[in-house]
Each structure stands twice: as C-alpha cells, then as structure tokens.
Amino acid sequence: MEEKKYCYRYPHPAVTTDCVIFGFDGVSIKVLLVQRGIDPHKGKWALPGGFLKMDETAEECARRELCEETRLQSTTVEQFHTFTSVDRDPRERVITIAHYALVRLSEVRGGDDAAKAEWFSLDEIPCLAFDHDRILRMATARLKERICFEPIGFELLPEIFTMPELQNLYEAILEVKFDRRNFYNKMLKLGILTEAEERPKNASRRIPCKYRFNAAKYKELKQKGFRLEF
Amino acid sequence: MEEKKYCYRYPHPAVTTDCVIFGFDGVSIKVLLVQRGIDPHKGKWALPGGFLKMDETAEECARRELCEETRLQSTTVEQFHTFTSVDRDPRERVITIAHYALVRLSEVRGGDDAAKAEWFSLDEIPCLAFDHDRILRMATARLKERICFEPIGFELLPEIFTMPELQNLYEAILEVKFDRRNFYNKMLKLGILTEAEERPKNASRRIPCKYRFNAAKYKELKQKGFRLEF
DNA sequence: AATTTTTGCGTAAAATAAACACATAAAATT
DNA sequence: AATTTTATGTGTTTATTTTACGCAAAAATT
C-alpha cells in the first residue's frame, strides 16, 4: 500500500479531464474511445482522460491525452462542461472537466498507449464507463451549436476540400439535409472560402472545385461583426 | 495549526465555485460583488464563491452561495466555464467552476453574510481579486450569447413587465439600440408573451401594456424547433 | 448509345427584416 | 390654460434574405 502523503485540512476531490475526440470520415462523425484496462469499469469503453497534474491547466491536460491517443499536437481543444455528480466514481469523489477536440482523421496516427482505441460512429456507441454517455451527449449537442456560429467544421476536413464534402459534414453534424445549390451559394457568399486550385479551362463540371478555409478573411469579417448563422 | 487530516496518494487541487450574479434595475445590468474579509486579496472586491463540499454538486454549491447572498432559492444558475490556471491562488492550487445566476432585484433581500456586498454596474467594476475580472468578462459574454437564443432575459425582469422594459433589458445586455416598433412587433410575433392585465376600454396610449412570459407556450414552440434569434 | 448522376451557375417566389408614418393622450413646458 | 414634447399602439412600405427550383454539360452507369 502506497503512502498517502498529500494531506490537506479539508477534503479535496480528485480532478480529471476527459476528451471527446471527434473525426469525420466523409460520411459520418466518429468519436475515439478507449477500452479501460483497469477497474472500475474494466473492459468497458470510455472517453480518453486522466488526472490533472498540479502544474498544468485543464486544457494542457486534455491536449496531453489527445496527443497520447492521436499523436496530434495542434488541434482545436475546447472545454465545454465540468461534471460533478458526487457518485461519478466509486473510488473517491472525482470531478471531470470535459473537453472536445476536432481532428483530421487522415492526420491521426496510432496512439502510443497500450490500451485499445477505436473510432465509433455516433449511432453505434457501446455502453460507456462512468457517466461518459452523458458527457458524449453533451459534447455532440455543443458541437451542433458551435458549428452554426463558428467555422470549426474545417478542423474536421482535410485542408483542401470540395463543396459536397463540406455539405456532407454539416449534414452529418446537424442531422439535416440542405439543398445542394442553396448550400453552395450561401457558403460562397460568406466569403471565407478560397479556391485552392485554379480551375482548368476545359473544366469538367462533374469534377468539383477545391476550396480551403480562409482564416484571415474570416477573422476580418468577424471583427466587422458578422455571424455565420446556419 | 490545525491538523491536515485529509490525505491522498496523489496531489489534489482545491475546488471552488464562483457565481456571477446578474440583476437588472431597469436601466443597466448589475453584478453582485462581495468585499473579501480575509487574505489573500483582503479588502478587494470579488465574486461570491466558496469551496465545494464533498456531498454537493457544483450547481448546488453555487446555489448555496447565491442563497447566502440574496436569500433566493430558485433562480437560473448555470455553469459556464472552469478556470484552471495554475497560479490562480497563492495559497494552493485552486480551480474554480464558474456559474452565472439571474435574479430579480426586487426579490433580493440582504444576505446573511457579515461580508459587505454591493451591486455594481458593468461599467464601474472595481479591481477584482484573483482572476475574477476574467471570469466576469466571460460571464457577460456568455450572457450576451445566451439571451439571443434562450428567453433567459425574463429571469431578470419582474414577472409582469412592459415592452419598453423588455427592450431596455435587451439593449442593456447586447449594447445595441433597436427600433422600438420593430422590437415590439418581433416580440409579439414570437408568441411567447401573454397580456398580464386586460386593457381598460378607455385605454390611454401613453400607459404601456403589461405582459408576462408564457413559459408553456415557449416550451411548445421550442419542441417544434424554433429559435429565438435576436 | 442511351440514361442517370453530379456539378456549376443561375432565377423567381416567398418570407423575413428594416425603415419609417401616424394618431393619441399623458407629461412637460410655456 | 394653451402649447409643445414625449411615449405608446398600430400600422405600411421597402429592402434583404431565404427558399424552391431550372438548366446545361461532363462523367458515370447501364
């Protein structure tokens, strides 16, 4: 039995971060889950997560876990809720600061963790450990809200993408269907897309144009006070 | 020196909740601050807050503090961000789960706390303890976002209110001016207001109609999938 | 070779938002 | 007391945005 050497005058809860890592394979939204190797809930699938170290912020902690699983250093990581039910963990009082991350599936390499990790579609999520199903539900709800007002969708696509790909992403997240031509017009009119390649003269109409997200232009427009609104 | 009797195998941060309590006096948005009676930052103004107990959730903790300051039991309290900078508190590692609360100023009675508490307008906030200025800024930003899509504004008004009062509230929070007649039309067309009193026949036009928020109607409309959009 | 699908680029209609006009009576001013 | 100003309810007109849908051409399918 290891010594309990960190002592306080008042009880302290343990603090963890969990990370809902979203990806997009061109058809549906995926979430990365890991299979727990230890009790409690040994063998069950869970969100990647771990204990907060005393010299790191919650976001740094979440990024560390993200990197352990995907080898990705720089991606969108955002805190969205802290879960504090008193009986979340049978061992001791544990509160968790939940984050979501958006990654490009093509850039993900296997994690260095021995633990088994797997991508799941949102409609085939297995039974999850702790209150992770609740965390996941809130994460997807937040993703839906955010994508309507911030251009976070581009974090899930390759740098260069086509309009149908972008539409598929929006439809997958929001679970709706858009009219192809209206989506096209609206997106272009926003002015935040740049044509990635010059279109050949003998342009085949069947081959879609390639775009990239114009972050500079978006920043400029945002300062003028415009909102995405989808 | 009191005994440090709560011991763990790994270091644990202390966890607090802070609460940004918003009120509206008919003209501007107010925030309740308390003057710290102890070090660190003794004498400085701060957000009401305190340590999370082991048998309560973060929301319960925030409500407890709200009640201590305002005697209000049932109001909107919502978590919006957890602040985790490593050097927030000079004593030890403290993370705080920040909430905002919306209260009707008319219903607020003095707190039972000995500490001095005072309402401040957003444009005359004094220097605050810890990182509470950052917390307050994020709270007001969140309030702005939320009021555009959820009818939380009514929590700040008396149960019965007039259209000019409602408009003043929206203008105070969003820091914009609306055309009186368009605001009026838009609000009525939403269908979430009920006339509170029958208007006398010899209705003076100068005396505004009185309304109340129709929560049932709002719930019904929301289920059909409509958004406020302001 | 014919048919279907997919894309770029439109346009007409419908719905929504923005701008503003006017009557009335209370309140303020003279 | 008469006059002016202000605040409110109720519109209408115009501009803008959203929605619905048409069409041609090349690629893919049959």
Instruction: Assign the CATH topology of the largest domain in chain A.
Output: Nucleoside Triphosphate Pyrophosphohydrolase
Tell me the number of helical segments of chain A per DSSP (H or I, 4 or more residues long). 5
Low-pLDDT stretches of chain A: none
Q: Could you spell the SSE succession of chain A in H and E letters?
A: EEEEEHEEEHEHHEEH
Structural class of the helices, strands and pairings of chain A?
alpha+beta
Largest beta-sheet details of chain A: 7 strands, mixed
**The CATH homology group name of the largest domain in chain A:** Nucleoside Triphosphate Pyrophosphohydrolase
Largest interface (CB within 8 Å) is between: A-B, 32 and 32 residues
Shape by Cα distribution of chain A: elongated
Look at the structure and give the CATH class of the largest domain in chain A: Alpha Beta
- Say how many strands of chain A there are: 11
Assigned CATH architecture of the largest domain in chain A: Alpha-Beta Complex
Please indicate the count of domains of chain A.
2
Rounded mean pLDDT of chain A is: 94
Keywords:
homodimer; 230 residues; alpha+beta; Nucleoside Triphosphate Pyrophosphohydrolase; Arc Repressor Mutant, subunit A; 2 domains; 7-stranded mixed sheet; 3-stranded antiparallel sheet; 11 strands; DNA-binding
